[in-house]
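Run DNA modification/repair radical SAM protein through structure prediction, thanks.
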Amino acid sequence: MSAQSSILDRLGILADAAKYDASCASSGTAKKSSVGGKGIGSTEGMGICHAYAPDGRCISLLKILLTNHCIFDCHYCINRKSSNVVRARFTPQEVVDLTLSFYRRNYIEGLFLSSGIVKSSNHTMEQLVEVARILREEHDFRGYIHLKTIPEADPELLAQAGLYADRVSINVELPTDAGLKRLAPDKSAPQIAGAMAGLKREIVEAKDARKRFRSAPQFAPAGQSTQMIVGADAASDADIVGKASTLYGKFGLRRVYYSAFSPIPDASAVLPLKRPPLIREHRLYQSDWLMRFYGYTTAEVQQAADPVSGMLPVDIDPKLAWALAFRDRFPVDLNRAPREMLLRVPGLGVRAVNALIAARRHRTLRLDDVARLTVSIAKLRPFVVTADWRPTLLADRADLRTMVAPPRSEQLELFAA
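Sure, done. The structure for DNA modification/repair radical SAM protein is below.
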């Protein structure tokens, strides 16, 4: 087998093994360009699409593991120590060479690098940092780098990672400490929290230093993120929403990502036999959005869930579920209501609300004006009042949920054969 063939074989194994990590979005990085300098790489431009930044730019990432060897035995992980999978490993220099080669072919704009734990947490973290160091210092690579850090590693190594990476992340893995102890016995919830707190402290201190001294080094300018596995344990959606809110508040995270549990070969008997519906993952992302951009409190989002099971409905989004649970707050007068109440109207996004507020300064809004700013006016009609529309008894109908719920469609599997 030739060396090139061997690298391609390992790339196939380690790129496939990385697909279960959802936290690879590249939003939040500062724009960097090699124009006018000797560096290589950029966080601007177009390539193979893997993620979108908030401003609409398409960000392409080489997303791989350094190795899928692991000394840990987390039940839900396909790369766990006891798993019967083909193993592979890259050296730091090989990852660097692959990144530069893919970039020069305009396939990627950055690197997302994670790894199983080989030999020890410190040894693995040293190799991850070495990849980023070589790219930045020896090749002046200015593209995006996201390093998945290891909470069990020394804090000094995590600090080094933040000096080279645009974003760093540590997976909390599971929503509850009990679930983590049961399914990932080698991991420690307090240790994970301590590592995340350390990264937050480094990020804050670096920002303060940059305000005083322009020459102060940046530290993970795109912040830190984390990921939770959904459906591997008994945690409800309300539990997950509560955990996410705590993580945002304590550690100043840029994003919490959710990954629906996927059954793996030779799975442990303690795991569920079926994966959760992928729509559950989608509903959690929608809930996350409500807390981050629509002004909902954690408790309000949890109120959209079933009071007994704690699960969000799968047939309607959580914003609509909340509106149906609190019909006394509606209808909302679109010509007079404050922005925070307009954001509660099902079917109205942030852009539509901003456009309505701008428009009503100049004229009285009618239903046709609203229809031009939304995808479906039918969803809004029971919840709004305009100059020519008042729902009267529509909001009190017993079959209102059926009226406003979207038609059911078949849920496709993400990794179906």
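Confidence is low (pLDDT under 50) at residues 26-49, 410-417.
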